[in-house]
Every structure is written in C-alpha cells, then in structure tokens.
Design a protein that fits this description.
Elements: H1 2-20, H2 31-34, E1 36-45, H3 48-53, E2 61-66, E3 72-80, E4 83-93, E5 99-103, E6 110-118, E7 123-132, E8 135-144, H4 151-163, E9 171-173
Antiparallel strand pairs: 1-2, 1-8, 1-9, 2-3, 3-4, 4-5, 5-6, 6-7, 7-8
Length: about 180
C-alpha cells in the first residue's frame, strides 16, 4: 500500500512537471525579428485582475526592443480614462530561445513568458504563466503588426487559449481605439 501511494504521488509529480513545460515555444525563434511595434489584438486570462477589468480594456500599442545584453524591453501604451498610460517591462532571456522571465516590481509576481508562435511580419502569440503568493494564472496575448488580423489568426488565438484551459468568458478580442492624442502619464 505504501509503495502504491508513493508510485501514485511520483506519477502526479511527473505529470505536474510536464504540464509546467507544456506551453510550446516558437521553433527557430529569431529575437531580432520580434522587435518593433505591435498592437495587442487579443487577451485571455483566468486571473482575477482580468475578470474585474476586461470590460474596460482596449487595444494598446506595444514596442519591443532588444537590450545590449539580449533581453527585451517591452513598452506598452494603453488608454486609461482620458489619458494614455505607459508601462515598461524588462523580459530577461532564458537558456531557451523564445522564453523569457519577468518579475513585477509592483506585485512581486513571477512571469514565465513563451513566444508560442509568430511569423514576425503579421502576428505573434504569447503565453505567460504567472505565479504569485496568492496563486497562479495564465495569460495569452495575440499581437499584430496592424490593427486588424484575419479571422484565421483570431480563431487560432481562441483555440490556443482554450487549449490552455481558458473559457470563452476569459477570452477577449480587444476593441480598437482611435489614435490617441491624449498625453501619457
């Protein structure tokens, strides 16, 4: 009985470890091609923050640039009230190309970021596993080089989000915003 219990626990642990790495990363990831301006077209998450704020969310602009040491500087500008707010994040490269880590200075949450798939010129699908003291969540982002994407790309985003265990209520195609003339905070 004791050996059976240990065997079951061992299999459960192995399954949990495999699930942790089940998010794929773009094959032959080319970091330099990911840099530049992107629009956030879709966002999906099971976090409480997303559930509370999703009715306020709109498309935002994100600029990705490489740092001298091979990390990514990610700057997102999004509408908030009658202004535009800017948020900067430094994604630290890992040993696996296309995978980055980030720790939020504000919340202390740890982010495991995977560039799941991209063709660099049209779209990028990015999945982030977020861990903090109160629990974990997942976030999936769909980026586009333009403010519109084909129905096939939108469906791929929805399908991948569902594969990560997210429900239709947790998946959002972000409404477009006009070009912001509002000042940044």
């Amino acid at each position: 009985m004791h050996a059976t219990l240990l065997g079951v626990l061992g299999l459960a642990l192995l399954g949990a470890l495999q699930a942790q790495d089940s998010v794929p990363v773009q094959t032959d990831f080319q970091q330099d091609k990911l840099t530049g301006r992107w629009y956030s077209i879709g966002l999906a998450s099971n976090s409480n923050w997303f559930k509370e704020k999703k009715h306020l969310m709109k498309m935002c602009t994100t600029v990705i640039s490489a740092t001298a040491d091979g990390n990514l500087e990610v700057t997102s500008t999004y509408p908030k009230g009658d202004q535009c707010e800017k948020r900067n994040s430094l994604y630290i490269k890992t040993e696996q190309p296309g995978r980055f880590s980030y720790t939020s200075p504000r919340w202390g949450s740890k982010h495991d970021i995977h560039v799941v798939e991209t063709n660099y010129e049209e779209y990028a699908l990015v999945a982030t596993q977020i861990s903090k003291s109160t629990g974990s969540s997942i976030m999936v982002l769909l980026y586009s080089r333009t403010k519109e994407l084909s129905p096939e790309r939108l469906e791929r985003f929805t399908q991948f989000s569902r594969e990560q265990g997210l429900t239709d209520d947790e998946i959002l195609i972000l409404p477009r915003t006009g070009e912001s003339s509002r000042r940044e905070r």
